[in-house]
Amino acid sequence: MAVKQTAGREALGEFAPKFAQLNDDVLFGEVWSREDKLSLRDRSLVTVVALMSQGLVDSSFQYHLATARKNGITRQEIAEILTHAAFYAGWPKAWAAFRMAKEVWADEDAGDDGKGQHQKEMVFPIGAPSDAFAQYFVGRSYLQPLSTSQVGVYNVTFEPGCRNNWHVHHAHKGGGQILICVAGRGWYQEWGKEARALHPGDVVNIPTGVKHWHGAAADSWFSHLALEVPGEDSSNQWLEAVSDEVYGQLN
Ligand code: MN
SS3 for 214? Predict the structure, then answer.
């Protein structure tokens, strides 16, 4: 996908139209856009180090730090990148770069890195906090719709310790749910049965009418794709939360 850039035209479109066009259409529109050759994250890493090594701490450096964060470089990683580069580019340049990096990652506390790390292990986006379903979950979950026509497919992400309440997928014909585990470690349990540990690649077929829950392990983020099996008059029935007692016994 092409990276859209308008900074060149906005700043220099009249004064240096060719430079603006090269900046927006070639540097960003073509080189930055070759995601199939090198990811945006890696391009950000290269760019930040290249600028930092010249001692540039102007607005362009700030822009590229913000872009690096947007492209998935975490606070922990930028600290490591600048520390490493300091030995090759020069200590004072790292000091200068750190001042700006601290500002760019200011609102991301160290505890957020688990989420960033989890995202890096997964091709599907984590998506937005799942506020609409929060009442049926213990802990925080995230939802990213992947398909909303034909068959509904959603990527559901659970923070460590998060799980949904006991629930039942109902339908008069067909229906039920399929889980495809994509990252991290989690659990699936049917009422009256032992819990099943889940790992990336595992598939769970959940028939209609079976009371169950799914969620993350206590010490790991977890994501599964949830597929809604088409059925007649399908509905979800949400029940009681999975108690700390039941969840705490899992290991
Ligand atoms: Mn379910």
Answer: strand
For the residues of 24-72, what is the DSSP string, one character each? IIIIIIIIIT-TTTS-HHHHHHHHHHHHHHTT--SHHHHHHHHHHHHTT
Measured in Å, residue 190 CA sits from the centre of ligand 1 at 10
What domains appear along the chain, each with residue ranges and CATH number? 7-112 (1.20.1290.10), 117-248 (2.60.120.10)
What is the pTM for the complete model shown?
0.60
Tell me how far the alpha carbon of residue 222 lies from the centroid of ligand 1, in angstroms. 15
* CA 92 / ligand 1 centre spacing (Å): 54
47 CA to centre of ligand 1 in angstroms: 44
Per-residue model confidence as pLDDT tens digits over 36-94: 899 999 999 999 999 999 999 999 999 999 999 988 888 889 999 999 999 999 999 99
